[in-house]
Amino acid sequence: KKVWQVENKGKTLFHAIDQSPKKQEILQRSDAIIPFSSWGETNQFKYNWSLSDKQWQCQPESVHKKLENKIRFREILPDNLFADYEIAYTFSDLQQKGEEMLANHQALVVRSPKRASGVGSKIIGDKKSFYTQECEDFFYEYGDKGLLIEEFIDEGKEFSIIWDVSTDREVNFLCWTSQFIKDRVHQGNLVGEKEQVFPWKSDKLTDEIKQTTKEIVDKYNYPGRIGFDIVADQEGNWKIFECNCRFGGSSYPNFIREQTKKDRCVVMHNIKPDLPSFREVHQVFEKLDLAYNEEEETGALVANPLCLPEKCAVVIVDKNPQQAENKLNRVLDYFE
Q1: pTM of the complete model
Q2: What angle in degrees, to the nearest 10, is found between the helix axes of 133-142 and 91-102?
Q3: Dist CA 49 CA 302 (whole Å)
Q4: Which of 56, 120, 144, 316 fits 115 for a cystine, CB–CB 3.0-4.6 Å?
Q5: pLDDT recorded at residue 37
Q6: Separation between Cα atoms, residue 9 and residue 125, nearest integer Å
Q7: Is 48 helix (H, G, I), strand (E, B) or coil?
Q8: Where are the beta strands (DSSP E) in the chain?
Q9: Residue 2 burial (10 A CB sphere; 0-12, 13-18, 19+)
Q10: What 8-state DSSP symbol labels residue 33?
Q11: Residue ranges of the chain with per-residue pLDDT less than 50
C-alpha cells in the first residue's frame, strides 16, 4: 500500500530501516513484517524492535530449507513432478552418475541446490566433459552440499506460478509469468493474464499446475510469496524445476502491473548498458521513442532491483506480449 524510501545502510533493508528516522512510523503502520528468510542477521531485528510473533511473521527455517533447497525439495515430493535426476555428493559420484544418465538423455544440467538465477548451473552433453579440470573445479566451487544432476529439457517453455500466503494462512493465487532464460541463467519475466503468458490454449495444463502447487503450499506453514518454476509444452506435459520461497524476479514486474490497467502485461529483463547512471539509460529509452507514457500506460522504465544492486533492468508495460517483446528487442539490440 505504501512504498518506503530509506537510505541504503548495512547489509539488508532491515539494517536500513533500523538507521532510518522513519523507523517508528514504518513499524507503527505495519500490520506484520515478513522477512525474506529466517537468517540470524535478519531475525535480530525482531528482538531489537521488540516485536511479537504476530508482528514478525518469519518463515520456519525447517520449511524454508525443505522447499528452497533443490535437493531436499525433490526428496519430499513425488518423483513424477520432476525431470529425471540423480544427486552427487562426491566428484567421482558426479562422474559415474552423470555418465550413466547421458546414456538415456541427450544433455544434463548440473546444479547447485542452493544458488539462484542460474548461478552454479552447468549444461553437459558429452561424457568426456565429466573428466575435465573445468568440471572438477565446478564441483569444488558449488558442490559442498551436493549437486543435482538433472535431465536437460530443451523443448517446452519456462513458466512460473506465484502464490501469496497471508499471515493468517489464506492462500491466494497471484499471477502467471513466463521466463526469459539464456544458457540456463534467468534473464527476466513476462507477467500478465494467463492468455498473455501462455502461447497456446492451456486451461487443463494450468488447472493441473495450480492444483498441484497449491497442495504443496497448503501442506507447509509458510507466510509470504512463494513461486514454482515450471517447464511445460503444448501437449500438456510439465515438470517443476524449483521452488522459490521469497519475492522472486517476477515480483517487480507484478508490482508495476498491479498499478496499471488490468489488460496490461509487463516485461522485465536484465540489461548491461555500460552507462554511468540510470538517468542516461532513461535518455536512451527517450531517444528510441520507448520511454514510459503515463497517460497511455505503455513504454519502458529503468529498474534497479533492491536485492540485486549490481543489476540494471528494463521494465516494459504494454497491451500485449508481442508489442512488449518487440520493444524489448529494440532495447537489447541497442545495448548489445
Answers
A1: 0.82
A2: 120
A3: 34
A4: 120
A5: 56
A6: 45
A7: helix
A8: 85-88, 108-111, 121-124, 147-151, 157-165, 171-182, 185-192, 224-232, 238-244, 265-271, 299-303, 312-318
A9: exposed
A10: B
A11: 1, 307-308
